[in-house]
Amino acid sequence: MIVIMRHKATDDEIDAVVLRLENIGYQIHLSRGVERTIIGAIGNKTPGDVGLEAMPSVEKVVPILQPYKLASRTFQEEGTLIRVGGVEIGGDTIHVIAGPCAVESKEQLMEAASIVRSSGATMLRGGAYKPRTSPYSFQGLEEEGLKLLAEAREATGLLIVTEVMDARTLPLVAEYADIVQVGARNMQNFSLLREVAKVDKPVVLKRGPSAAIEEWLMAAEHIMAGGNYNVILCERGIRSFESYTRNTLDLTAVPVVKHLSHLPVFVDPSHAIGKWRYVPAMAKAAIAAGADGVMIEMHPNPAEALSDGAQSLTPNNFVNLMSDLKKMAGVVGRKMP
User: Fold this and answer.
1) I want to staple 29 with a disulfide (CB 3.0 to 4.6 A). Which of 18, 40, 145, 246 is the partner?
2) What is the pLDDT of residue 150?
3) Which of 14, 31, 62 lies at the terminal end of a domain, its last residue?
4) How would you classify residue 142: left for phi > 0, otherwise alpha for psi between -120 and 50, otherwise beta?
5) How far apart are CA 142 and CA 224, in angstroms?
6) Distance, CA of 117 to CA of 325 (rounded, Å)
7) What is the CA angle 240-242-297, rounded to 5?
8) Domain coverage including residue 38
9) pLDDT tens-digit map of 108-152
10) 25's torsion region: left (phi>0), alpha (psi -120 to 50) or beta?
């Protein structure tokens, strides 16, 4: 539930409400605004069992009916703004995360980073640990890949987004990354989500290929309940009966989740579709649907990519897409850096 305190409630009055809630087993999330203080209380009791509205400093008690509490619009009506390295995610500016599927070499990554930067994107993606279906496929450069990402950040100023595979490697990934990505396969790896919640870094949480929207938001709730509110949701396609594309990109999820949750929403059309020629159209459609950003795979030479070359844009195609996205942002009343 949400406890809305009266205008100009004193610190002692707020502390009294917090103490009462904690004494009966609620987990407290306090938000102090300019006009009002709001107390988010997570627990199993119903608001009527607590008797808070009898306290003189309480204006209103609002129950949160959704199973996801902290991620819901009921808990926080305004959209979340995530600030990292001078970049604000979730506001009027649309951001692009771009780069190769995997870090393959210093030359490949630096060339990709230069193109990403000059085209106006703000974040560089690249996998150091690669979750591959086949054990014989390229599995990533691991720590060496993380070091190369850090070099690329130093050279370009781009923020680094890279995936964490398990709790064992999380401290190392968090040491190098600006934003930690939880991939689709790990969306419901709850032990990993609890560990990610302890890291003081924003988290990109990709939707699982068979996950309902509520399950996706509940995964975000695991991270937020652990203390990390800086979650960026990323739609990357769901499984359907259609086999022409890798997955089916569920763009309806963008406005639906934006209605249900205050968290920023990105879209990854590259992984959803698996075929580069359809990526630009779906990236533009994602912006039209209200996404706060897109994640695009771009490789200096897709034909020689060690992973996911078929879905990666060439540098020229990426530059053209960035130009189109800037125009699309203006159409929907937003902007790009």
Assistant:
1) 40
2) 97
3) 62
4) left
5) 27
6) 15
7) 85
8) 2-62
9) 999 999 999 999 999 999 999 977 667 767 777 999 999 999 999
10) left
